[in-house]
Amino acid sequence: MNRNPSNSFSHRSPSNSLPLLTAITGFVNYKTAQGLSQRSVDSYKRILDQWAEYGGNKKIAQITDSEINKYLVYMRTEYVPRRFSGNTRALSPKSLRNIWITLCSFFTWAHTEFRFENPMKSVPVPVFRKWTWNRLLRKKSSACSRCVPTRVKPIHSCGGSLQCAGRRPTGTRRLF
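Above: the chain sequence. Below: its structure as tokens.
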């Protein structure tokens, strides 16, 4: 019998496995000890508690990649968000990716701490396209490439003309 735990990442038997809610508490404490902001820690806890509510308080060694995939499909298609505004539109691709990142971080922690197999290795990353400066430019064809981008739309110090000096709107003009 091999008693050296440093040789391999062997599975622990499910009877010795940690219940999900206990593991979530340990993970949240770990993230707090890492020095993450309270907002980040609350986000991790909220996402993981919601996942535990969906799947039940089972042992974490018994959780499979197919169960995680089913949960992500549920969040994409059937889940009705509870927002302060009352809006019930489906979650955005970025929100789904944040859920995937949280689950990935949780199982990476569990894998490191308890030597459980990480089921997230075979769960595909949800598709999410970032907005880039080039995509914003295509929306406003008269924009020059030296204007300052923002998250929503580009700010053009040139007023949309093609003869832009390339200054930020708050910048000062240098006179010769």
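The mean pLDDT is 76.
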